[in-house]
Amino acid sequence: MAAARARVVVITGGSRGIGLATAQAFAAQGDQVIISGRDAGRLKSAADQIRSDQIDKIVCDVRDPASVEQTFQQIDSRYGTIDVLFNNAGVAHALTPVEKLAPETWREVMETNLTGMYLVTRAALPLMGAGSSIVNNLSVAAVQPFSGMSAYNAAKFGALGFTKALREELRQKGIRVIALLPGATNTEIWQQFWPGAPREKMMKSETVAAAILHAISAPSEASVEELMIGPTAGVL
Question: What is the pTM of this model?
Answer without folding.
Answer: 0.91
